[in-house]
Amino acid sequence: MNIFNLFRKILSFFNLEAELEQTDSVYEEIKKGIVFKGTNLWILFFAIIVASVGLNMNSTAVIIGAMLISPLMGPINGMGYSIATYDFELFRKSLKNFSFAILTSLIASTTYFVLSPLSTASSELLARTSPTIYDVLIALFGGLAGIIAISSKQKGNVIPGVAIATALMPPLCTAGYGLATLQFHFFFGAFYLFTINTIFIAIASVWVSQLLKFPNRSIIDEGKKKKINRIISLIIAVVLLPSIFFGYKMVKQEEFLRKANQYVSDVSLFEGNYLLKHDIDVKSNKIILVYGGTELTKNQKQTIIKKSQNFNINNATILIEQGLNLSSLDDKNIELYQLKGEIINLNFSLNKKNFEIDSMINRQKFGETLLKEIITIFPQIEGCLFTESLFFYDNVKTPNRTPVVILSFRSNIRDADKRKINNWFRQRLKSENLKIYYEKSAVQKVRTH
After folding, report:
1. What angle do CA 421, 426, 427 make, to 5 degrees?
2. How much is the pLDDT for 168?
3. Tens of pLDDT along 294-340?
4. Given the DSSP bridges, would you call strands 317-325 and 286-293 parallel, antiparallel or unpaired?
5. pTM summary value
6. Distance CA 129, CA 113 (A)
7. If DSSP codes are grouped into helix, strand and coil, which group holds residue 405?
8. What's CA 202's distance to the chain center, in Å?
9. How far apart are CA 170 and CA 190, in angstroms?
10. pLDDT value, residue 446
């Protein structure tokens, strides 16, 4: 099989034609999904309330449940499909119904948050106010999966999964929260996220519909096609560019937080002063350090600030505050805090010693690992002892750290096999200085090689 045939066979696995629905069936399914009256309208209303309660109570499970029952994907796919097939009547209906769904959702969520006694912004709410380029990718690939599933005979459970991944419902509810609490930065951030999801799910529908060559529903000249494509490109650019900026900003904030935490850990103990608490503000690149101990001088504070250069956070604003000043306390309180400091140092030393003891125990147990490896090659070996010790020489000041291995065997081992075993251990332990001893289990006689 040549490379061309192999490549063609691989491509056949990605072929969608054999599983495609009839184009009329796809059209009817999309057309049915854009309607918002009766059942779909009530489901939308209930989904909005459920999502609002989930956001209000900070419950991820409830929010996922609301996304599962949400019917918002229908008109978005309708808009994408109608653009790809130049069905302007379907596009008008999709846009009209989608606008009605957005208005209904905002009214329902705003009303809920006005009436709710809980008004604190939870982490689930805050997560929907800062969209980035990653949200674009989620919406795009989620939309691709959704429209392919609609076009296929084997729909499976893709549509509910797409509804969860693209998360259309929570941003609308968060926008309602912003309106209800008059926090318009919440509204604009959440509505921008909702716009990103909507646009790129629709764009995914356009691309797949064109790729699958769904038939045009109206006659259109090339000039109008080019105009439509220019409008789509402009919309993509307008929506995409801010998300790239926010994504870059998020990456820089994560990088600053990582470096700031390393810096804080490095200056947690400074010339008898203990870091009582700290605060890292990634949005303004500010670090606040609160120390307890003797009063820090201006030079000491400058030294602490200068240490930030070691972690490449020169642009950070570092504020140092004195939380507990021992110099202002009486002698009895000074002794108390000095005693606490000694206890902290003792605990640190104890933990260090425990770590060293654990390391020694684990090193001693390394013989078990070696035994399991060597008996697969030489099953006549039944025991292995491993240790490391310092080998002292009479005329050398610095001793050598030497690994020592004692092997116990149940039957005689030939000299040729011993040479192989010796070479294996030298390779395994990466040491030419190791000492290997053999003993026979029954006789307990030790020989050196």
Report:
1. 100
2. 77
3. 677 888 888 888 888 888 887 788 888 876 555 554 554 555 555 55
4. parallel
5. 0.57
6. 16
7. strand
8. 26
9. 8
10. 43
Q: Are 313 and 260 spatial neighbours (Cβ–Cβ below 8 Å)?
A: yes
d(CA 417, CA 108): 82
Q: How far apart are CA 51 and CA 61, in angstroms?
A: 10
Could you tell me whether strands 435-440 and 286-293 are parallel, antiparallel, or unpaired per DSSP bridges? unpaired
User: Around Cβ 185, how many Cβ atoms within 10 Å?
Assistant: 9
DSSP per-residue codes, 242-301: HHHHHHHHHHHHHHHHHHHHHHHHHTSEETTEEEEEEEEETTTTEEEEEEEESPPPHHHH
Contact 266, 288 (CB under 8 A): no
Helix-strand-coil split of the chain, %, nearest 5: 65, 15, 20
How many angstroms separate the CA atoms of 448 and 438, rounded?
A: 7
Residue ranges of the chain whose pLDDT lies below 70: 1, 12, 15, 18, 118-130, 154-167, 272, 293-294, 323-349, 351-352, 354-364, 442-449
pLDDT at 268: 80
Residue 175's φ and ψ, nearest 5 degrees, are: -60, -40
**Rounded distance between C-alpha atoms, residue 125 and residue 284, angstroms:** 21
The position carrying tokens 């609301």 is 66
* CA–CA gap between residue 127 and residue 405 (Å, rounded): 57
Structure tokens at 138: 């989620």
Which domains does the chain show, CATH number per domain? 16-219 (1.20.1080.10), 366-448 (3.30.300)
For 78, phi then psi, to 5°, come to -65, -40
